[in-house]
Write a structure and sequence with these properties.
This protein has 8 helices and 15 strands. With about 300 residues, it is α/β, with parallel strands linked by helices. The two termini are about 25 Å apart.
Length: about 300
């Protein structure tokens, strides 16, 4: 059984590059795999491994400057979620492209999962899903607004274009694990919005703690590991990834004539060129050969 730990923490790292070598070496020594992002603003990522290995890495991260109160979310899988370990240096641990954003200075009001339903059903509250469009497409909260953004960088422009719709409203926002809302709530406060709220621990904590019969969540939650989606109780969902566009699809979608393993699906068949598809076919061939050799080439992405 593999333990999966999804984590993020905003803190000041004066020299993220100096942290990378020892952190990567520890992960490799403990056979921990996944992806960790380091930036001056903190750390973000998802890792998996044995219980002992994950505990060792988390203990090390908690010892980094300002990380003693690190929080994380855990799940388990009976198959390896990731094929390799990467520690990457980034300008931001979740990219919003707003240099003045500082979640350490101030964020919105945290809302516990047990209080979330009452809040979002209040008449004076507007609920905004801050995730990307492909994530929202497979599940969201009942009544939530989908900004239809392709990346988090687009959120500030979307807000500027739509903010008048939310005049005199309290704003409640949510995302997969909470990290985007740390930035988006700070951004809205900077825009003069005072009554800003966000779901503490994100969708993942809500699905873990909220009984299904009391839930206002509809569908599945996209996750950035080989499970692809999870439902209530963080049970693995039915979705798979199209390796052509990295969007979630259902098993039935593989019956669509547009589907070609590793190349395209009904969502992206018209988005890529013939040259792209040829390159994807070659990649799929190399992945097949790697599997035959016993190598593992599973992808991995940080928490959102």
């Amino acid at each position: 059984m593999y333990t999966i730990a999804a984590l993020y923490h905003f803190t000041r790292f004066d020299d993220p590059a100096a942290i990378k070598p020892a952190l990567l070496a520890l992960c490799e020594a403990q056979a921990v795999k996944g992806s960790l992002l380091l930036a001056h603003e903190g750390i973000n990522g998802t890792i998996s491994g044995s219980r002992v290995g994950i505990d060792s890495v988390l203990e090390y991260i908690r010892g980094l400057p300002g990380c003693n109160d690190l929080e994380w979310k855990e799940a388990t899988s009976d198959k390896p979620p990731f094929g390799k370990m990467k520690v990457r240096l980034k300008k931001e641990i979740v990219t919003m492209g707003q240099p003045d954003i500082d979640p350490k200075a101030r964020v919105g009001h945290y809302v516990e999962p047990e209080d979330w339903n009452d809040l979002i059903h209040s008449d004076d509250v507007v609920v905004i899903d801050t995730r990307n469009d492909y994530e929202v497409s497979i599940g969201t909260f009942d009544g939530a607004i989908d900004p239809k953004t392709e990346s988090f960088r687009e959120f500030p422009a979307w807000w500027e274009e739509n903010k008048e719709r939310f005049h005199n409203k309290r704003v409640a926002m949510f995302c997969t694990g909470g990290i985007r809302c740390e930035k988006s709530t700070n951004f809205l406060i900077g825009q003069g919005v005072e009554d800003v709220y966000h779901l503490k621990g994100g969708i993942l904590r809500y699905l873990e703690e909220m009984p299904k019969e009391d839930s206002t969540w509809k569908g599945e939650c996209f996750v950035f590991d080989s499970r692809v989606s999870v439902g209530h109780g963080l049970q693995e969902g039915p979705h798979e990834l199209c390796n052509g566009c990295r969007r979630p699809i259902l098993p039935a979608d593989k019956l669509n004539p547009a589907f070609e393993l590793g190349v395209s699906c009904h969502l992206c068949i018209n988005e890529t060129s013939d040259a792209d598809k040829a390159r994807f076919r070659e990649r799929q061939k190399q992945m097949r050969l790697a599997r035959e050799r016993g190598d593992n080439h599973l992808g991995h992405l940080p928490l959102r």
